[in-house]
Amino acid sequence: MKRPSAFYPLVLLLLFLSVSAAFGGLVLMFDPGFMGATEDLLARSPFSTFFLPGLMLSVCNSLLPFVAAIGLWRKPDWGWANALNLYADRHWAWAFTLYSGFSVVIWITVQITMIQFDWLQPAYIAVGLLILICTLTPGMMRYYQR
After folding, report:
1. Total-model pTM
2. Is the Cβ–Cβ distance between 125 and 13 less than 8 Å?
3. pLDDT by residue (tens digit) across 101-133?
């Protein structure tokens, strides 16, 4: 079966999200001042330092989309990933891609409520929504159906 037309844009979106979130997460964990982040940004959050938000960013919005992109490309049968799949009728990579889209939309929505507005936030909401739209296209749903 031929890959659907949404496949390549979706993999590129996941890889873009993964690389940029890895960079952002590492910077937040080890040198938040590099991006101009100051402790006063955390005033409306439950965090006292940027380390935990950076770690969460790295795991949820970097590692998860990276694993999803690998899964979409290769379609491996990984037991641990299948155990986390909420959609028994779809390959786990499809589910992880859906999780990645929701994760970035939720991340940015929470971020907007806790810190000041930044021009990157709407851009990343758009990335998350595009991931969700591509994932939910009929071609992608058929291609990853079990």
Report:
1. 0.93
2. no
3. 999 999 999 999 888 778 899 999 999 999 999
